[in-house]
Amino acid sequence: MSRPLGRALVAISCLALVHAAYSTYEYLSTLKALGRPAGSLPTSIIVEALGALLLFLPGTTLATSPLQDVTYRGELAKRTIGESDARMGFARLSARGRALFGDVVAPPSK
């Protein structure tokens, strides 16, 4: 229920913001055509842009999926102890020797 409501709020806020931008363009074009210096925008345009922002924020909050746990503790909760072993794999040189040099066994030293 909240996801379609959030998407509707986002759509309405985007339309309101586009209308506020168009109204601003028309207002400034009219002032330029009349040769008047550009002053501040009318309060109706400012209120419309702020209203679009205030609709957009809860709309995006409702439309997005729940946040996932990205902490180290949350990642370890998904793994087994074998997957999350803290010991370094490259610390054991004997395990890497066969992968690097094949099945060659070093001659015993005297």
Automatic annotation (TrEMBL):
InterPro entries: MMgT. Keywords: Membrane, Signal, Transmembrane, Transmembrane helix. It is a multi-pass membrane protein. Residues 1-20 form the signal peptide. It is found in: Endomembrane system. It comes from Saitozyma podzolica. GO terms for cellular component: endomembrane system. Belongs to the membrane magnesium transporter (TC 1.A.67) family. It comes from the Eukaryota. Coiled coil: none annotated. This is Membrane magnesium transporter.
